[in-house]
């Protein structure tokens, strides 16, 4: 691919320090990354609020996360082509505008369908912010300073899982759910002005063709398939056309995409890379892990809010230990990934996650907060030692132009895994909760039967309801059933993490040479680093 050349000064003659001009550019990118990453985690604590606000099932409101991550996956491969076609500065500002406009529209949503649609628009902008931002930073500083740049960009990556739920919880408590989106408007406006002033100008250049046909098969295919799955709790059977219809069409589109992707010279996803055994093993390990970990991650705040009756701020604070654990081990794992084969470190990190997650398979309505927070911290320690080493292993054996395509493949698999995890776990939880005994003679606003678990959850969020119920044991029975439903869903996540040990056993256990910046392969370092790893 033709693109603006990167400065080719010898590393020995160039300072490794980031000068003021580079830091000014980095400031724009970090601001955009904070917006994008925070908005993934901020919404996690709002899902129960969306349930009550829009009178929707958990599986339905989880699409505010699923739709967002699917939109991210859609634009990741598009960003490299568009950067050449429209110029990085112009495209970055377009992405900021899309994200900011999408945020504003989310705050105006009157139905859950509108909110999901606006979240997709937000994701289309947010998905381009990180890869385009990294391209701009790499060009500004040169590949020899990429390590220092990643350290700067690592700040929002580490703070997002901690600050997002706390910020979201606080905004919902002191204002309303609308403010988790409205807060992006002033930040987005500042980022746009900052980008206009700070980012260097570049010109659009000829670029390789983009696989629009592949995109029109993969993205709708995944969305339709997951929509069919998420409709299952409402219909209660696979025989309903609203379930099997979208699933069948979606699966057909995805299968067609797999066969088609071997034909174009520049496919949306280069599945030929799976001929590389180490890349395949690392990708499979990461995909299964992401489904389990990201899916389970959505359930933590919902348990605190719906079963324990905590405020959204307290729910965000209770989740923070997981982010703190990841913050401790992620830098250590980065260092170890350069010194030790990932096959010798990742299994130990997975054991930490298994140990921490087991606590949640035993949940009841009164489980100790000390035990829960300690388990979340242990899970965070494991997460910090799992994600980046696996992604590093996936890319280490690639050379030249393969690195850009391999990074795109790994990033999209990560986002798809998150979407699948959110959809699957929300469907299982919704199905479990619907199994709660119905209360005779009591119906909801639409005539549907009210279950013991549903009434207990409503009473936790609106304590005045509990005072109107003559039988206090009914609330306790409902909470016990709800806690068991969460525990059952966590068992599924636990099983998936155990399943991750199978591909992880084949991760490299010997030192492997990195080709990420191997100029002898004929690859352009700027091109190789064009689409960086994205961790939400």
UniProtKB/TrEMBL annotation:
The keyword Membrane applies. It is a multi-pass membrane protein. Residues 25-512 form the Major facilitator superfamily (MFS) profile domain. InterPro entries: EmrB-like, MFS, MFS_dom, MFS_trans_sf. It comes from the Bacteria. Residues 514-536 are annotated as: Disordered. It is found in: Cell membrane. The chain crosses the membrane at residues 21-46, 58-79, 91-110, 116-137, 149-172, 178-200, 212-231, 243-260, 281-300, 312-333, 345-363, 369-388, 486-507. It holds the Pfam family MFS_1. Keywords: Cell membrane, Membrane, Transmembrane, Transmembrane helix, Transport. SUPFAM superfamilies: MFS general substrate transporter. NCBIfam families: efflux_EmrB. Belongs to the major facilitator superfamily. EmrB family. This is Multidrug resistance protein B. The lineage of its organism: Bacteria, Bacillati, Actinomycetota, Actinomycetes, Micromonosporales. The gene is emrB.
């Amino acid at each position: 691919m033709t693109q603006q050349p990167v400065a080719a000064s010898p590393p020995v003659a160039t300072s490794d320090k980031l000068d003021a001009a580079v830091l000014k550019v980095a400031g724009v990118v970090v601001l955009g990354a904070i917006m994008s990453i925070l908005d993934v985690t901020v919404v996690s604590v709002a899902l129960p609020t969306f349930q009550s606000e829009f009178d929707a099932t958990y599986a339905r409101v989880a699409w505010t996360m699923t739709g967002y991550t699917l939109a991210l996956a859609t634009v990741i491969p598009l960003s490299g082509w568009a950067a050449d076609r429209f110029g990085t500065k112009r495209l970055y500002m377009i992405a900021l505008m899309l994200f900011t406009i999408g945020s504003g529209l989310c705050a105006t949503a009157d139905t859950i369908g509108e909110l999901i649609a606006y979240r997709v628009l937000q994701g289309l902008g947010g998905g381009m912010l990180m890869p385009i931002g990294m391209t701009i930073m790499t060009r500004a500083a040169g590949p020899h300073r990429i390590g220092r740049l990643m350290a700067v960009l690592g700040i929002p990556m580490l703070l997002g899982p901690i600050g997002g739920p706390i910020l979201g919880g606080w905004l919902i408590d002191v204002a309303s759910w609308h403010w988790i989106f409205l807060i992006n408007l002033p930040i987005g406006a500042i980022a746009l002005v900052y980008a206009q002033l700070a980012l260097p100008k570049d010109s659009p250049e000829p670029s390789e063709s983009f696989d629009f046909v592949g995109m029109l098969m993969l993205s709708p295919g995944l969305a339709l398939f997951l929509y069919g799955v998420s409709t299952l709790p409402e219909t209660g059977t696979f025989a309903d056309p609203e379930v099997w219809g979208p699933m069948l069409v979606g699966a057909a589109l995805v299968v067609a995409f797999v066969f088609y992707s071997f034909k174009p010279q520049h496919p949306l996803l280069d599945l030929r890379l799976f001929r590389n055994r180490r890349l395949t093993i690392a990708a499979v390990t990461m995909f299964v892990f992401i489904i389990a970990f990201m899916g389970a991650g959505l359930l933590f705040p919902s348990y605190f809010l719906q079963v324990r009756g905590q405020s959204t701020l307290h729910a965000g604070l209770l989740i923070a230990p997981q982010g703190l654990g990841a913050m401790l081990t992620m830098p250590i794992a980065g260092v170890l990934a350069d010194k030790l084969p990932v096959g010798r470190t990742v299994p130990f990190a997975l054991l930490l996650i298994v140990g921490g997650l087991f606590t949640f398979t035993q949940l009841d309505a009164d489980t100790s907060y000390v035990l829960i927070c300690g388990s979340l911290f242990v899970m965070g320690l494991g997460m910090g030692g799992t994600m980046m080493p696996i992604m590093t292993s996936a890319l280490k054996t690639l050379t030249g132009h393969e690195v850009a395509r391999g990074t795109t493949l790994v990033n999209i698999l990560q986002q798809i895994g998150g979407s699948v995890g959110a959809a699957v776990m929300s469907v299982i939880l919704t199905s479990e909760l619907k199994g709660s005994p119905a209360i005779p003679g009591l119906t909801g606003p639409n005539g549907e039967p009210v279950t013991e678990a549903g009434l207990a959850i409503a009473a936790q969020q609106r304590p005045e309801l509990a005072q109107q119920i003559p039988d206090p044991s009914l609330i306790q029975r409902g909470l016990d059933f709800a806690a068991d439903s969460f525990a059952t869903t966590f068992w599924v996540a636990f099983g998936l993490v155990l399943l991750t040990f199978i591909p992880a056993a084949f991760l490299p256990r010997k030192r492997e040479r990195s080709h990420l910046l191997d100029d002898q392969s004929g690859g352009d370092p700027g091109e190789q680093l064009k689409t960086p790893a994205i961790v939400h």
